[in-house]
Amino acid sequence: MEKFKKIPEHIAIIMDGNGRWAKKRNLPRIFGHREGAKSVKEITKACAEIGVKYLTLFAFSTENWKRPDNEIKFLMNLLNDYLKKEEKTLLNNNIKFDTIGDISKLPEKIQKKINRLKKITKNCKRMTLILALNYGARNEITNAVKKISSLVKKGELKISEIDESTISKNLYTAKYPDPDLLIRTSGEVRVSNFLLWQIAYTELYISKVLWPDFRKKELYKAIHEYEKRERRYGGL
Ligand code: IPE
Ligand code: IPE
Ligand code: MG
Predict the structure, then answer these.
(1) Distance of CA 54 to the CA centre of its chain
(2) For residue 105, how many other CB atoms are within 10 A of its CB?
(3) Residues with catalytic annotation?
């Protein structure tokens, strides 16, 4: 097995380039999403194997609702299938399942499957897989502001007591450490409203490889690059 000197405890990935992968092959975009789902499975397993503790995957953003209805429908069906079929793999690999984002806007049958998967994997210990679904960082921060304001209004929190940890604790990611490594595939160099607060000191890695082609070997390359980074957090 591949050897590493340093493993990121938390990896976050903006899985991008499915549409372009299909386009290059003169196929409809949905073929790229279908192939991309295979990368999700391979990368999840690979991360668990090498000792990553948290893997956060950006699967559907608050902005992705702007896409054509048929593409959204396909993505929801793909998610529904994934939730149904991955149950065994997650349990066999001792992987806990969680989500971030507002899942109340997703089709009801998907919400049910999500809740079921969370429940049956809740004691899994090797790694936590966190799917970002209908997730947007600005929406997350806005919600945090609302929650904190209502605590202040009820007299349960003083303004002077608000610090950075108050914000962190009111985000979807409250239970999780900030990502050590953020990977974006397909060569786009932007954050696209993902984890804005949490990536303040995350190492960034952009891969030119399109998500459906991003498999084990590409993941290892990203981690080897991470090993070389010197994280100073503003110190010396
Ligand atoms: C990422 O691939 C998947 C989602 C955003 C759901 P895209 O669908 O964005 O593929 P490109 O960027 O158009 O190639
Ligand atoms: C970001 O990719 C969202 C996900 C990977 C789910 P997009 O393809 O939606 O982002 P933009 O439009 O290139 O910024
Ligand atoms: Mg894209």
Answers:
(1) 9
(2) 11
(3) 16, 64
Q: Which residues does a 6 A CB cutoff place in the pocket of ligand 2?
A: 14-16, 58-61, 64, 188, 190, 192
Query: Could you give the count of Cα atoms lying within 13 Å of 135 in the half-sphere of its Cβ?
Result: 24
Pocket residue to mutate for ligand 2, from 13, 16, 23, most atoms within 8 A of Cβ = 16
Q: Which CATH class is domain 10-136+179-227?
A: alpha beta
With b for 16 or more beta-carbon neighbours within 10 A and e for fewer, the 158-193 pattern comes to eeeeeeeeeebebbbbeebebbbbbbbbbeeeeeeb
- Ligand with an atom nearest the CA of residue 21: 1
152 CB-near residues (< 8 Å, 6+ apart): 158, 159, 162
Predicted structure pTM score = 0.98
Q: For 90-129, write each residue's pLDDT tens digit.
A: 999 999 999 999 999 999 999 999 999 999 999 999 999 9
Q: How would residue 1 be classed by pLDDT, with cut points 50, 70 and 90? A: confident
CB 135 within 8 A of CB 58: yes
Q: Rounded to an integer, what distance in angstroms lies between the CA atom of residue 210 and that of residue 187?
A: 8
The mean per-residue pLDDT over the stretch 181-210 comes to 98
